Amino acid sequence: MTNDTCEIDGKRLQHALYLLGRNVSLREQLIEFLKEAEPSLKFEGSVRDEITGPIVDALHDTKDTYEKTLSDGTRFKFLFRTKIARDFLMASVEHPSHVWEPQTTKLLLGLTSGITSDVIVGGAYFGDQAVLVAKNISALGKRVHCFEPNLDQAGMLKENFRINGLTNVRINTLGLWAESNVRLKLDGFDSFANAVKIGADEDGFETISIDDYQKQFSLDIGLIQLDIEGAELGTLQGASKTIAQFKPHIVFEVHKNYVDWSDGLKNTELCRLLLDTGYKVFAIRDFNSHYEMTGKPVELIPVNKVYLEGPPHGFNMVAVQDAAIFSTLQYKIVENVSPKLLLHKAPGLHHPTNGL
User: Fold this and answer.
1) Residue 191: domain span
2) 277-293 pLDDT, tens digit each
3) Helix axes 130-137 and 151-163, enclosed angle (nearest 10)
């Protein structure tokens, strides 16, 4: 069989699965079957990412919409786009505890419990974490300021705040950047898209710096969360006055595609910016997926003790002024392990230290 024949047959199979997926009842049955089959599939890599997930992806198109309710009653509507939606849809229980990245979600809720200032979320997407943070601080009279330039996802974000009765939110379709009034566009698909500069006459969106936004609305800022595909450094540089004045907790993503950590994570420009302003910086051990971690402490790795080997990858980090905040049983400081929790990799490096 030639490569061309394989490619044609592959496209035919993908199209056949898509047609099958237009029948919602059959689609649901097949997804349930695949979930049940996963524990029985013997495979050295990730069963979800390499076997069952691609089949589920083929059943859908980017307009397919779902609604799912968490165990605490929080409702989410979401488009079937990228791994975030797929893995949430394929959760092991009908009403899961979270949407995406269980330990980062837990950390965000811990850091915002009792918070006395507002929260900024850059890359809010459909609200997978921002909705839960807003719900967590609603009784405190504090607001979440969301930034999401992807208009489809910003629409879903607005809807998810609405269906949960949350009014303590401001949704911005501006992009966070080092400076304001720069024209950008998203390059790439959906949650994987990164921002690139464009000309004044091209379709795109405007930027704003956190310092300018804070000044415009006279905000007190207690936490900044950034998941903006490589724009984290510039955005934090554009938040220097806010950081100096309010010393907010900062949760952010780093990725090898955007951050050169060949001289160690501690020596990257991004981490140095925070360390030099008095922050204590940790990597968050987490699944870049949906996985139930109820009862498991959030494991944090000091920035100079992070195992970084492996193919290009990304993970979340947290910076705080006082590491004593992590002295409760909700957290556990660990060393010389990977921040990437992976079911199919070496347990000593890629599983929680007290097991799965």
Assistant:
1) 102-350
2) 999 999 999 999 999 99
3) 30
Check whether residue 210 and residue 150 sit in a common domain: yes
In 3D space, the residue among 144, 280, 282 whose CA is nearest the CA of residue 223 turns out to be 144
CATH number of the domain encompassing residue 274 = 3.40.50.150
User: Are residue 23 and residue 106 in the same domain, yes or no?
Assistant: no
pLDDT digits (tens, 9 = 90+) for 228-280: 888 899 999 999 999 999 999 999 999 998 899 999 999 999 999 999 999 99
Q: How many CB atoms lie within 10 A of CB 230?
A: 16
- Are 148 and 247 in the same domain? yes
CB-based contact 236:252 (threshold 8 Å): yes
Put simply, whether the predicted model's pTM sits higher than 0.90 gets the answer yes
Residue 298, both tokens: 């959030």
Collapsing DSSP to helix, strand or coil, 284 comes out as: strand
Query: What is the three-class DSSP state of 199?
Result: coil
What is the number of structural domains in the chain? 2
Q: How far apart are the C-alpha atoms of 2 and 21, rounded to whole Å?
A: 29
Angle at 316 between CA 315 and CA 319, to 5 degrees: 145
